[in-house]
Design brief:
homodimer, about 325 residues, alpha/beta, 7-stranded parallel β-sheet
Amino acid sequence: MTDAERAAFWRGKRVLVTGGAGFLGSALCHGLARLGARVTAIDAMMEEGGANIANLEGASVLLVRGDIRDVELHSLCQDVDVLFNMAAQTSHMGGQRDPVADIAINAVAQVRLIQVLREAAPRATVVHASTRQFYGRPLRLPVDELHPVQPPDANGVSKFAGEQYWLLEQRVHGRPVVALRLTNCYGPRLRIRDAKQTFLGIWLRRVLEGETFEVWGGEQLRDLTYVDDVVQAFLLAAEVAPRPEAAGRVFNLGGSAPASLIELAERLIAANGGEGQYVVKSFPADRAPIDIGSYHADDRAFRAATGWTPRVGLDEGLARSLEWYRARLADYT
Amino acid sequence: MTDAERAAFWRGKRVLVTGGAGFLGSALCHGLARLGARVTAIDAMMEEGGANIANLEGASVLLVRGDIRDVELHSLCQDVDVLFNMAAQTSHMGGQRDPVADIAINAVAQVRLIQVLREAAPRATVVHASTRQFYGRPLRLPVDELHPVQPPDANGVSKFAGEQYWLLEQRVHGRPVVALRLTNCYGPRLRIRDAKQTFLGIWLRRVLEGETFEVWGGEQLRDLTYVDDVVQAFLLAAEVAPRPEAAGRVFNLGGSAPASLIELAERLIAANGGEGQYVVKSFPADRAPIDIGSYHADDRAFRAATGWTPRVGLDEGLARSLEWYRARLADYT
């Protein structure tokens, strides 16, 4: 699709983004609004999550505050063309502490949303934000989509259930659905206040504030996806979802070449002009049972189906992130 | 374990069996009571499920009527030594019709039970009745435990979630937990009133009543486990669950050599002295999307871990089943 074709595709489309005030949801809202889509964001603005009202600053988006567990969904879903389903409880520790709330958001509320959408927008395309999380500690690297599912925590159980309900909607009712299993994503609008949204959030804050950050473990490999590349992936996924080769599929999404946490820490400091320091700590005992070790994605299936390829390298992405937050620290700390 | 060792192991043990009035739950209750265990069965006695008060006739078992979604669980779980967790919504069509109730029973109520058990019986062993169902349409045969999980219906989604919560309890809290992924089980106490509990239930009824039964499709392969062999498997699973080589594991359970539905129909009629007839019909359209084709289990891991081997061959199991129901048709139709 050329840029012009893409703009034509999205212009005037009714799009609903759940979790639209969060890190990835809001970035997607900005991108969609720029393409001329009519975007509604719904977000529960949960304190422990990624939502931040500042995330939607400057975007032509209608933000509805509401929790998908109980908000009136019918009017939100009416005649929607595309649903980007980004709302989730994503906290691993939160899921362990309160698995009932965790499954209520990530699975039971998904069932309700699916049922409402079936009535209100039976032909809408859905792109569901899923996660590498439930692969657990990888049995082999890189991890492809046929890797066994072995959730390391309650959050992984509920996220897998939610994803599978959406895929069933394609298989049983023919709805165009694609699920993207994300790895660690980073960039502007990531929650950096604390360690609740990937390890990189709090690292960015500490570096920007001139404080020492902690690296837990250090040898674990991770791949990272820059937010702009995530947005491109979601747009592409929606564009191809009705095609037979994409409908009802899950795709891993990777990004940068795998690097150890130590290497990532070094490159973050380099991206900050060499300023910054970290200490290496052992993995906290209360998190050890849910630690997954090394991960990186085999995302060749998604690349083949969509032509997607990450455009923003790690060093550039880190530099851009630092620059973005430097001007907005007060809104994010 | 010799028979004497097994009796010594179980004598006086406090055992809770959820779904204890159902097909497999009640068979387990009978077996446990014979071994001298102190058995409490809890069952919601749901009309669409496998529960039947006649199933517990003659067993020294306390039956509590209650739904694990809301019953007071604490007193039931207090100081239990072993929990056999057989309660489930198992209807595939029911799960599609009401996925919210389905996940409430199979996953959310499991979380509650796990939490109560953590307080009331922190060291109890748990054997969780799981299912081959969520492997979906097999990518290869026979199906081992690393086969990808791809639930073909909402019931498969919720059952996988429930299983995984129990396994986490082993990984995070060290509880001895084993999950058995069952294939089609049959024998005395199976629901034969209608087609709600495997295809074989209604076949048995039709044959016993001298009526024609329907074979849907016909070429699909199935393996079957006779109920006595299932009971042995659950007892063995509880006995080995605390060992490092078993704790926290899932095991497939197979049984008879795979046979096509047509062959199974022929053998059922042969077991009935040649009396009986069937018609082959195409798979009903409303069930086609959740049809899984052929399945048979690779259960070598469980055999290796426990020494289990099925004792009752298919022809004998079918003959025993027919004989058992012939004397009790009124209670089961």
